[in-house]
Here is the input.
Amino acid sequence: MNYNSIYIIFLILGLSCFGQEKYNLNGYIIDQQTGEALIGANIYNQASKTGTTSNAYGYFSINTLQGKNLFICSYVGYINDTLEIDINSNITHNFHLNVQNKNLEEVILRSESSNIKSIQNSVVNLPVKQVKELPTLLGEGDVLKAIQLLPGVQSGNEGTSGFYVRGGGPDQNLILLDGVPVYNSSHLLGFFSIFNEDVIKNINLTKGGFPARFGGRLSSVLEINTKDGNMKQWQVEGGVGLISGKITIQGPIKKDKTSIIIAGRRTWIDLFKKPIVGALENHIEFKGGGNYYFYDINAKINHKFSDKNRLYFSIYSGKDQFLANIKEEEVQVNEAQSWSETGSHRLTDNIISTTTFNAATNFGLSWNNFTTAIRWNYVINHKLFTNTTLLYSSYKFDNAIGTQNNITEVFVKNSELDTEINQESDYLYQSGLEDIGFKTDIDYFLNAKNHIKTGLSYTKHNFLPGKIDLFSTYIENEKDTTMIFSETTKPENIILYLEDLYTINNRLSVNLGLHYNIYQVNKKKYHDLQPRLSCRWLINEKSALKLSYATMQQNIHLLTNSSLGLPNDIWVPSTDIVNPQKSQQSALGYYINFNKGSIGNWLNFEKNNFEASIELYYKQMQNLVTFSEGTHILGTNFSSWEDRVEQNGNGIAQGIELFLQKKTGKLTGWIGYTLSKSTRQFEDINLGEEYPYKFDRRHDLSIVSSYKINQNISI
Here is the structure.
């Protein structure tokens, strides 16, 4: 198949004309103090009663009428900026917003209600400020802990950072850090996430109604965008917790032209190991040692060539390392008597032997993530915005165990060595994967009614072998064994997409999209055309109905036996034998905003801005994969993982979600409740009968609140 032809067809469809407004206003929405681009800020034209939002890079484009126009730019937590202008040509204008501290809620009441105006449902945007104010575990704030408190999202085990969305598994969540996939998001065996909240700019979770630009997972897309770096002045901030410390440095290399941000975080658990080990040795005669640490490094350089050209270079590197050694020594003294007769006398001879057992075990566990991206933003003209990205992502895991046993037996009588036995063994488990690819995304602001998005991406996966190497010696005998669970596989994935955000009238808007996925592994090629639809009916300025339908395909699988999300869970690709997973999800939601004059009166607050929603969803899943009964990753035979799994399983997830959120003011937080049911069915599991998914939780209630007493104290 000619992939270039397919892309040209998509592009032609996207650039088809519908009749255009005469003029256009475009530009960036920027934080006045830092120069950061603001994602999802609102632009509203009071003259034409139309609006739009800034994209992931802060860029916007809105068509206008000739003559006098009044534009209002708003963003949660910022003072509104206005532009009144008599337009008779295309205009480029950047809005610079200032943070509002004292009269924040008055500003928010006059701004656009983004949750009502947006076409998508099943989407939650979490303000970073709210995440930072949540209670922390051991002083470590955590994005994924906040995600777990949202309706439709559940945690695995208490304290862990893994999350499960609408009955899906952990591998069914696409986690994007600055647009690059991350395959392991946990530190400390799942208790903390890899995301440093001090460098995060935007958090967006999509649980359903997926736009055509998203693909590759069945359950959710978590987008985390990091800060670009302060363009105005240098800043240094840091923090000290019970188990780690962190520091962030950002500032302009050249003011208003080039910025850099570097952030680091590291545990110091390993610094306390000596007193802990010393206490153990004194009280329980413990002989051994251990060491554990993790670190994160985020870095980004942002260079502005002009208002039309910008370049970003970002890196993330993180690692967990656990080392332990245990030494044991045991001495056994054996006393025996031998008898001999000399004439009429019997003689007794005491013989003493000493047997010494020495054992040493060294244990090592490490896993690391590395991502990097080079992104180029180019504004071709006032209607056409492009973003091109080169990306790389890798995840690797190693587990090594080495043992040494020594047995010696000495006869004290003559101090001669009688027996010595040495035994050694080494165990090494390795797995991982890496991606290298590129993608191009195009925003075409056709006219006031049509916003076209289209794009192309290519990814070359490299699934590293999941294998165990065993080496052992016993006296003079040696054995070397390798058990391979996954051969090196290098599938390719091409994605084409097209979507149109179409405003039919002042009340009805739709997002129509197609996502075309081409996945090739060995000689097998999978094609999948995935239609997407989202509709929004604006009941009034304060409420809306939303409906969505999306089909998804997932080409990779995570094989796991535990509920902890341990790093030795193994990522495997779809193959000639194992098919990609698929899903279809429908969702219906009612959204409403409250403010002064409604819910605010009986809550006795002077001013309020509440967002509330109720959503029903139904999701069907096919071609699910799980381990067969009685099997696991670390099996004792040499068979491939494909021989140990059950596939072509079915799943159903359904539920209702209630959500009430307040983002601004002294009191912030949310209440979320989910009533849900999730089941699985495989032909050779549970006698072929349907059974509850292991993380099926019928009722889930979360209450999150923060009250700011003053600038320095909050509860």
About this structure: The longest strand covers residues 345-381. The chain has a mean pLDDT of 82. The radius of gyration is 31 Å. The CA atoms of residues 51 and 153 lie 31 Å apart.
